[in-house]
């Protein structure tokens, strides 16, 4: 079997370590420059609270075409890198190749369909806290790594389910109903990622603010209202379910991928979250005042920092 992972950061690094543990000799990583050199020289190093310590040695290349047609390509880049990453792996996509997308957001599958000439696209929503370190090792914190995935192609979903059914990942094959999970994750991100980026504080510190929990709840409500207005089927008690889950979360000493990127001065997925939410809200005539306020405030802060 030929498995490829492109985007060897927090999420892709974890998944690549998981895959190369169970499928040694069958995994190729797509990485560039210093990351590629490091992965080739030292292997892929994972420090994971959930999966343990692993050093694996999958093949690494910055020239995907050399790896040939793949069975599954896991695309783990940020939303804004999707187009470039997909175009680079087109030579590896045959008629039967599964292109498994792991991005936060709601528009990446549609974008991917326009780029990928053949094969089968599977969309996924991942719940994990993982990042890459300066030495390109991967650090996963928390006792969970969960993936919901699906598409209307049941055969491809079953093939991926068989590949991923191992300790170190909790998997949920949602089939054609994946859109609901994509929106549930998106709503979570439009609250969790945006509020941690707005305050540049951990979710625990935000909940200790007098209005922190209420603001988090309002962000969930706003995003849920937008989702429903677009016609997506969402559970009746969704806001309370997500709110309750995050309130009950044991480790609250965490930011989000968005907050981490903004605080580190890196390019971010702000537009993927509140930017797109605010634009969609306008189209479907739903008021999202808190999301809009936080979006504009964060965007302004990023622009000001870039000018300094
Ligand atoms: N991190 C987390 O805990 C979570 C992240 N997510 C989502 O998962 C997705 C991935 O996030 P995350 O893993 O954090 O991202 P990272 O920034 O950690 O990693 C992205 C990786 O993609 C690489 N990359 C960028 N462009 C290309 C390209 N054209 N070809 C090949 N590789 C490329 C980058 O390498 P380079 O240095 O070469 O640019 C980097 O290694 C995002 O949509 C995020 O929102 C979801 C849940 C949790
Ligand atoms: C929900 C959360 C915070 C962790 O899975 C996330 O998706 C992110 O950090 O991007």
UniProtKB/TrEMBL annotation:
SUPFAM superfamilies: 6-phosphogluconate dehydrogenase C-terminal domain-like, NAD(P)-binding Rossmann-fold domains
Entry keyword annotation includes Amino-acid biosynthesis: no
Superkingdom to which the source organism belongs: Bacteria
Enzyme Commission number, as recorded: 1.1.1.169
Stored InterPro entries: 6-PGluconate_DH-like_C_sf, 6PGD_dom2, ApbA, KPA_reductase, KPR-Related, KPR_N, NAD(P)-bd_dom_sf
Pathway(s) where this gene product acts: Cofactor biosynthesis; (R)-pantothenate biosynthesis; (R)-pantoate from 3-methyl-2-oxobutanoate: step 2/2
Record's keyword terms, sorted: NADP, Oxidoreductase, Pantothenate biosynthesis
Ketopantoate reductase C-terminal domain: residues covered: 180-299
One protein family per Pfam: ApbA
EC main group: oxidoreductase
PANTHER family (UniProt xref): 2-DEHYDROPANTOATE 2-REDUCTASE (PTHR21708:SF26), PROBABLE 2-DEHYDROPANTOATE 2-REDUCTASE (PTHR21708)
Sequence similarity: Belongs to the ketopantoate reductase family.
Name of the protein in its database record: 2-dehydropantoate 2-reductase
